[in-house]
Design a protein that fits this description.
Elements lengths: L1 E6 L5 H9 L4 E4 H11 L1 H11 L4 E2 L2 E2 L1 H10 L1 H25 L7 E4 L14 E6 L2 H12 L3 H10 L3 H7 L2 E4 L6 H11 L1
Parallel strand pairs: 1-5, 1-6, 2-5, 6-7
Antiparallel strand pairs: 3-4
Helix pairs in contact: 1-9, 2-3, 2-5, 3-5, 4-5
Length: 191
Amino acid sequence: MIVGITGGIGSGKSYIAHGLEQYGFVRYDCDQEAKRIIEQDPDVKSQIVQLFGTDVYQDGKYQTHKVADIVFAQPALLQALNAIVHPAVKADILNLQSTIYNPQSSLLIESAILWESGLDQICHKVIAVIAPEELRIQRAIARDHSDTNKVRARMRAQMSDQERCQHADIIVNNNEQQTLDQLCQYILQHL
């Protein structure tokens, strides 16, 4: 079974995803794995170089900030980049799923942009992690050492909790009223 877990910045999706690993889930962090693919997959690298030029890789390292500056100023280039990376991530997930031999293990796909990337299409169930906005801001500031305005801007750029809840199979309110174990038990009961 493939389960997606998603949520906005500061919602606690990673916190809950790590908790679910203790229950036998194999966790796939889309952000982390996309970075690996971008730096190591020769086909992906070639397509990115074709799109942006050779200076987006320096000493083999992908220049995330340089590309981010370009794509956020030119939405068409962001779409083109996503058209390269998202299918490669999806293929990597399906490849990983085929290597999981334990039928008791489920693959947990952690992604802030699960629906936007189309990864929901390969999920049997989707968990949306939500939390009150002010709590999300506090968490993101503490984690990223950012400021309120930057966090709010990122929140505005993401899908709203209301939209996530409309599409999700399981909704988890991570408002610090329950322990991690209680949140995980709730999810397990609803899978």
